[in-house]
C-alpha cells in the first residue's frame, strides 16, 4: 500500500527531493503530492536571467513531461499550504482541502528582503525571483535609461545582467565595502568590479538606498542613496538578500531558529515527528544555507531516510561554489575565513587567487578564485593537508 509524501513547495530543492525519492523508491512505496505555490512547475532560478535572453520557460523548467505525468506524482500548481494538524498528520491548503500524509517536507524556500525605505512600495519597484517578477520588470524596462538594483551579491548581479539584457544601464548599490561581500574578499571583488564596470554597470559600494521619489502619477522619478547620489530611473529592483519562508512553523507548532528558518536537527527533522524541512526555509542545526547545492544535500538525506536507508547526520555543509557573473568566473572552496590563517595571494590584472593555510599546521583550509577558476577541482582534494609544492602554478596557471 502506498504511503503519501507531501512536499510543500516546488522550487529547485523541493523538485530534487521528489526526483531523489522516485529514483530510490524501486518498489513504489511512496505517492508524492507537491503543493506548488507558483503557476509554473520547478525551474532553474540560478539561470533566471536567461529568460530575458531568449530562453523560454520550457528551456528553464526542471520538471519535464515524464515527471509531471508520472503515475505516483501529483503536482498541484497555484496551491499553497496554510496550516495543519501534526498529531493527525494532515496539512491544509489555501482552498480549504485537507490532505493526509505519512511524511511532510517543507520546501517553501525564501522571500526577497525589501528594505522599508520611503517609496519601496511604488509601482515601479520589483523583486527578482520568479518568472512573474521578470515579466513585470520586462514590461517596466526603458531601454537607454538607468536602472537601479539594490544589492551587490549573487542575486543583485544577476538582476543587473537582466537590466543589461533589456537595454538599460544598471546601477548596483551594495552596503558592504565591495561586491559579493559574503563570498569574496577585497582582492577577488576588485577583479569582479573592474569587469562589471567595463560592461557599463555603475557600482556604488559602502552606501544604501535612502528613498525613492515618485512623479505625480506615482511612477518612479529617481532614487537617492545614503551618500547623496541621485539616480534618475523609472524602476528599482530589490535583490538585497532573502529571508526564510518559515511562516508555516507556528501554524504547525514547529520551532524556529533565532535568526529565522524552520529549526531542524542534522537529519533535517523538525520538532514535530514526520515533518522535515529542506532548502532555504530550513535552519539546519540553526544554520541557514542560501545556495542550491546544500539544499540538494539535504534533499538526498531526507530521501534516504524515507526509503529506510542509513544516512549520517549532516554537519556543516560545504558551500564551495563556482559561478559565472556577467561573464567573469568566481569560485570559493573550503573555508574562506579563519582567524589567524596565513594567506598565499597571487594577483594579476584580470585574475586573483588566494589560498588560506592553517596558522599552526600549514594545511590548506580553502581559497577564493576570480577570473580563472579551473584550479578549484585540483586544489579541493588538498583541504586539510599540506598544499602541493606547485601551489602558485595551480592557483594562477599560465
CATH level 4 superfamily of the largest domain: FAD/NAD(P)-binding domain
Terminal CA distance: 61 Å
Number of domains: 3
| Number of DSSP strand runs | 25
CATH class of the largest domain: Alpha Beta
What does this structure look like?
The chain is an alpha/beta fold. The chain folds into 3 domains: 174 residues, FAD/NAD(P)-binding domain (3-Layer(bba) Sandwich); 114 residues, FAD/NAD(P)-binding domain; 75 residues, FAD/NAD-linked reductase, C-terminal dimerisation domain (Enolase-like, domain 1, 2-Layer Sandwich). Helices cover 21% and strands 29% of the residues. Strands 3-2-1-7-19 form a 5-stranded parallel sheet, covered by helices on one side. It has a 5-stranded parallel sheet with strand order 9-16-10-11-12, covered by helices on one side. Helix 1 runs parallel beside helix 8. Pathway: Nitrogen metabolism; nitrate reduction (assimilation). It comes from Streptomyces roseochromogenus subsp. oscitans DS 12.976. Pfam families: Pyr_redox_2.
Key descriptive features of the protein:
398 residues, FAD/NAD(P)-binding domain, Enolase-like, domain 1, 3 domains, 5-stranded parallel β-sheet, 21% helix, heme, iron-sulfur
Summary?
Pathway: Nitrogen metabolism; nitrate reduction (assimilation). The protein is an alpha/beta fold and 398 residues long.
Amino acid at each position: 500500500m502506498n504511503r503519501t509524501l507531501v512536499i510543500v513547495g516546488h522550487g529547485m530543492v523541493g523538485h530534487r527531493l521528489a526526483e531523489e525519492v522516485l529514483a530510490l523508491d524501486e518498489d513504489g512505496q511512496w505517492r508524492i503530492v507537491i503543493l506548488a505555490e507558483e503557476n509554473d512547475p520547478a525551474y532553474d532560478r540560478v539561470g533566471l536571467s536567461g529568460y530575458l535572453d531568449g530562453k523560454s520557460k520550457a528551456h528553464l523548467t526542471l520538471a519535464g513531461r515524464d515527471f509531471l505525468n508520472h503515475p505516483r506524482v501529483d503536482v498541484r500548481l497555484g496551491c499553497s499550504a496554510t496550516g495543519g494538524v501534526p498529531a493527525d498528520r494532515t496539512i491544509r491548503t489555501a482552498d480549504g482541502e485537507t490532505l493526509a500524509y505519512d511524511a511532510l517536507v517543507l520546501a517553501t524556500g525564501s522571500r526577497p528582503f525589501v528594505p522599508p525605505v520611503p517609496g519601496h512600495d511604488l509601482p515601479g519597484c520589483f523583486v527578482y525571483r520568479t518568472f512573474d517578477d521578470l515579466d513585470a520588470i520586462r514590461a517596466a524596462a526603458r531601454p537607454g535609461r538607468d536602472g537601479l538594483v539594490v544589492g551587490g551579491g549573487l542575486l543583485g548581479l544577476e538582476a543587473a545582467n537582466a537590466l543589461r539584457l533589456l537595454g538599460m544601464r544598471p546601477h548596483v548599490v551594495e552596503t558592504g565595502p565591495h561586491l559579493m561581500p559574503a563570498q569574496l574578499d577585497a582582492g577577488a571583488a576588485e577583479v569582479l568590479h573592474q569587469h562589471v564596470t567595463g560592461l557599463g554597470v555603475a557600482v556604488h559600494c559602502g552606501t544604501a538606498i535612502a528613498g525613492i521619489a515618485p512623479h505625480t502619477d506615482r511612477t518612479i522619478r529617481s532614487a537617492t542613496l545614503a551618500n547623496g547620489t541621485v539616480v534618475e530611473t523609472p524602476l528599482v529592483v530589490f535583490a538585497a538578500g532573502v529571508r526564510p519562508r518559515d511562516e508555516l512553523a507556528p501554524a504547525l507548532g514547529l520551532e524556529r531558529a533565532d535568526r529565522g528558518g524552520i529549526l531542524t536537527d542534522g537529519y533535517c527533522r523538525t520538532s514535530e515527528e514526520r515533518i522535515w524541512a529542506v532548502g532555504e526555509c530550513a535552519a539546519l542545526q540553526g544554520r541557514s544555507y542560501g545556495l542550491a547545492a546544500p539544499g540538494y544535500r539535504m534533499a538526498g538525506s531526507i530521501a534516504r531516510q524515507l526509503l529506510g536507508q542509513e544516512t549520517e547526520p549532516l554537519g556543516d555543509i560545504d558551500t564551495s561554489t563556482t559561478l559565472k557573473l556577467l561573464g567573469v568566473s568566481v569560485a570559493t572552496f573550503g573555508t574562506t575565513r579563519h582567524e589567524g590563517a596565513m594567506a598565499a595571494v597571487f594577483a594579476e590584472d584580470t585574475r586573483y587567487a588566494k589560498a588560506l593555510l592553517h596558522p599552526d599546521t600549514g594545511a590548506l583550509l580553502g581559497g577564493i578564485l576570480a577570473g580563472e577558476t579551473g584550479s578549484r577541482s585540483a586544489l579541493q582534494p588538498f583541504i586539510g593537508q599540506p598544499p602541493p609544492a606547485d601551489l602558485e602554478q595551480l592557483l594562477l596557471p599560465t
